[in-house]
Each structure stands twice: as C-alpha cells, then as structure tokens.
Amino acid sequence: MGSYAMIEGYFIIMKLERKKMSTFSALNILVIPADQAKVESLPENGWLLRLPSGAAGSYRVAQIDDYRRLPRHCFRWQPPLTLSLTAQVSAADLPGTWGFGFWNDPFTLSLGAKGSARRLPVLPNAAWFFHASPPNYLSLRDDLPASGLLAAVFRSPLIPSLLLAPALIGLPLLAVPAAARCLRRIASSIIQQDTARLNVEVTRPHEYRLEWQPRFVRFYVDGEPLFETPLTPRGRLGLVIWIDNQYAAFTPEGRLGFGTLQNEASHLFVSKIHIE
Predict the structure, then answer these.
(1) Could you write out the DSSP letters of every residue in 193-245?
(2) Largest CB tally within 10 Å, which of 65, 122, 171, 216?
C-alpha cells in the first residue's frame, strides 16, 4: 500500500511502491461523490473502482490517471509501448462509460486550481478500450460503431488551444440540425478516427492488451489480436482507467446531447497492469 493525501475532498495522490508497479511513480485518483465513489488498492497490482447507485442529474466517477498535475507537453507516454491489464465489470450494460488506455485529456479547462496543471481544451488524441452505453454516440463517422465495447483510436492535429478559440463562434449553430450536420462533417475531416466493436463477455476477467507503435495500433483480448489500425494518436498521452455515469452524443442527424444517467451500484476491477 502507498501513502495517501486527500485534496479538496475528492482528489487523492497515491505514491506507489516501486516493486508494485515499476512503470509509475504516482497516480491520481478521482472519486465523485467523494464520500461514496471509491478506488481501492488490491493485491496483484489490482484496483477496484466503485460507483454508488444514484439518479440521473448527478455525476459519479471513479478514475485513476497519471496526468492531472502535468501540462500536456509533459504527459508520459509515446510509442512504442504496450499496455496490458486484466479487467472485468459488474454488469454488461452499465449506464455511462468505462475503459482504459491513453488520451490527451482534450476537454479539460483548468487554470491550475487545487494543484492541477493549467490546461485548455484541444482536439482529441487517444488509443483505448472504451465501453459506451446508449444513448452515447461517440463517433463522427457514420460507418463506425458508436457504442458498446470499442477498440478506438482518435488522431487530431496538434493545434494550440488559443488557435481553436475562433471555432467557438460556430457553437450556437449546433442548435440548428442542418448546421450541426455540416459541422459534424467538418469535424470528421479534422478529427480522424478508427473503431471496432468487440464481442467480449465483459463481466468475466479478460486480459486486454493495447500495442501502440509509430505506424499502427493493435488491440488484443486474451492474446488474440482483434483489431489493428494504421491510424495512430499524435503527441504525448496520459494513462486513464475509469468508470462513470456520463453520456455524450453527436448523432448523424445532428443532435447533440450530454448528461448523466441513472445507475445501480457498479464497479470496474483491473489488475496486473503493466506498460512496457
């Protein structure tokens, strides 16, 4: 076990013993609500992420990451690398999202409060196993799956946040379906993605492996390669493992939606985490 420090009720920084996870020196743990959601350290480099039951309208999350205190240019991970872990969840149809992998935390707006790094929104880059329940619709391409257990890669230009600011002028157009469909097509030409839906019994333990090379990303389950794409993320990424009750959707019809879902008590269990 490591040492714990509580910050503003829901952020915990955990210093890990080097023999337990030699790849990392520190992880950040986010739990909301702080008195109900939990992340527990278990043997075999295991972590149990728990969500309490609750109604729609309140955000609930249990998350581990290694980037909260870092600016994006200091995120830790670039190819070549391989992430492997064993995971299972409490139910196949958990409302919201859960998953594990790497991303650039693109949607965070932080001015450095509570010990976090200063960070403005950017375009997404990611490679991860991502489970999304309905009404999530997490694809900008009509020919790719947008929910279920996904092996997914996003690749976007590394445009500085301040240069993206003029795009905010177009946000009111998202309320007009015809304009929103046009903006979605434009976004899909800038934000590249490749995704496959995986047929995995997620309530049973499986070994998930993500191989990120400069020229491809390959996804395995129980040693079997299930998806490979030549699309690779740009820039430096951070590790994230999470479960929450959130949804986001940008449908082919131009409907934009986001919010939180009612959920029963649920959990994500991961173990044997290794990055090489």
Answers:
(1) EEEEE----TTS-EEEEEEEETTEEEEEETTEEEEEES----S-BEEEEEEE-
(2) 122
Phi, psi of 229 (to 5 degrees): -140, 140
Whose tokens are 């997620």? That residue is 202
Q: Pick 31 or 18 by higher pLDDT.
A: 31
Q: CA distances (Å), 46 to each of 94, 123, 165, 235, 270, in order?
A: 21, 32, 41, 29, 6
CA distance 195 to 185: 17
pLDDT digits (tens, 9 = 90+) for 180-215: 999 999 999 999 999 999 999 999 999 999 999 999
7 has pLDDT over 80: no
- Residue 10 per-residue DSSP state: T
What does the block give as tokens for 69? 């205190």
**Structural contact between residues 151 and 195, judged by C-beta atoms closer than 8 angstroms:** yes
pTM of the model: 0.89
At residue 190, the 3 state secondary structure works out as helix
Phi and psi at 89, nearest 5°, equal -120, 165
Q: How confident is the model at residue 116 (pLDDT cuts 50, 70, 90)?
A: low
Reduce the DSSP state of residue 15 to 3 states and report it: strand
**Nearest in space to 249 (alpha carbons), one of 107, 106, 157, 132:** 132
Distance CA 180, CA 187 (A): 10
Task: Give backbone dihedrals phi and psi of 141, rounded to 5 degrees, phi first.
Answer: -110, 135
Residue 124 has pLDDT above 90, yes or no: yes
> Phi then psi for 164, rounded to 5 degrees?
-85, -15
Find tokens 């972590």 and name the residue: 47
Of residues 240, 259, 213, the one with CA closest to residue 75: 240
